[in-house]
Amino acid sequence: MHCHWRDCQAWNQEGLPLSTTSNEACKLYDAVLTQYTGVYDDASVGGIATSMKAMLAADPNFVMGRVLTNGLDLIGTGRTINLDPDFKAAINTMTDMAAKQDITERERQHAKAIQMWAEGDTTGACHVWEDILVAHPTDMLALKFAHDSYFYLGYQPHMRDSIARVLPYWKPTMPLYGYLFGMHSFGLVETSLFSEAEKVSRKGLDINPKDAWSTHSLAHVLEMMGRQDEGISFLSTTVRDWTTCGMLACHNFWHWAVYHIEKGEHTGAVDIFDSEVGERCKKSGAMLDIVDACSLLYRLELEGVNVGDRWNDVFETCRPHTDDHILAFNDVHILMSCLGAKKKDVAKEMMESIREFVKNGKGTNRDVTAEVGLPLCEAFEAYDSGDFARAVNLLNPLRYKVLSIGGSNAQRDVFNLFLINAALKSEDKMHHKLARCLLAERKCLKENAPMTDRLTERAMALHAD
User: Fold this and answer.
1) pLDDT digit string (tens) for 397-449?
2) How many CB atoms lie within 10 A of CB 338?
3) How far apart are CA 390 and CA 141, in angstroms?
4) CB–CB of 182/216 below 8 Å?
5) How far apart are CA 362 and CA 1, in angstroms?
6) What angle do CA 295, 72, 334 make, to 5 degrees?
7) Is residue 259 within 8 Å of 221, Cβ to Cβ?
8) Which of 233, 316, 347, 417 is deepest in the core (most CB within 10 A)?
């Protein structure tokens, strides 16, 4: 892993000058960028949080240090300027510094992109980062911020092509070069180019076996191709490599559990939740870990597993975020925790908050929430109250729009499973036929799918009509 941090001169030589005279700030900027790209905490610099503080302490007027710090808060999707005055002040400070200082056009564009993201214009921020990459294709910060934002937006071809456009400009000797392959592979798997995605992810792992993003991408390939046994074997034999990357470890454990659920090995999935996913979610409070915990418990319940009181801890971790409305994808998972923990009063308050956001909010996620997020949440609310027909009628027309809430194909599959289960439980005979049609479609997409086979057997047993 890269650890020879670049100083002012090194950044200049790479054509990515940083407007600071502090070598320490430049080196720590590299350290933070590297940890973000590699999704791990480097103990030599005290981890990513400590190195961010040290970077700003080395030069409090370092605009790109502010860009990086604020950007990571945004990308984490756990803070919003609409509810957090300190965060709003931090964005304003960065914007003022960028306006007043003699910095490069690239740095000015970075500050603009972060301001746009903070104000809700996620798509606009991505356009700015792509402009930066045309002129500076080796700017990893622009590349990674765009990559992660495309993921949140459900812009799958963008996620793939953004990396492909810059690959020829990178050299194997450049710091962070190996991470390009995990990122490119993920774009490939999300656009159903599975064979190519597998080759590219394995190349990333050949360069760096501890590249958790390449591990993650290969886990997606094995999931989407119905290679559950290979997936379990792969993650179990490489666990010491990818658990060094704590920011993504919970998610890779989630993938491991999902393989078990597909196979009907519910005890294995519950054990992973208890030993890893649930504990990591509670400890980190990170939004990625939160949605993993919510999704895993909900999938288990759809399979008929009694998860006991496990929802309670997850709900407590979610509780501070019920009014965030940063991503519709987050909102629906947070709502799962409210319903799962039987906190119907909080669920009702959250739904009112979402409607208020749709009415008075602005930006990319407001529009996505209005069209897809709100009715999707209403479908989960209806299902929880036993109105399965309403759940079907709300979600079925939105099936091909759910992509817009972001997340991966594997993550959003919980909504396909939800719709099938709702249709099976509905009293409407047309919904029973719909369930069988959806299952036939599902089988065509992934032939080795034991869960689909179990659901098909259930459908035939429940409804001969």
Assistant:
1) 999 999 999 999 999 999 999 999 999 999 999 999 999 999 999 999 999 99
2) 27
3) 44
4) yes
5) 41
6) 25
7) no
8) 347
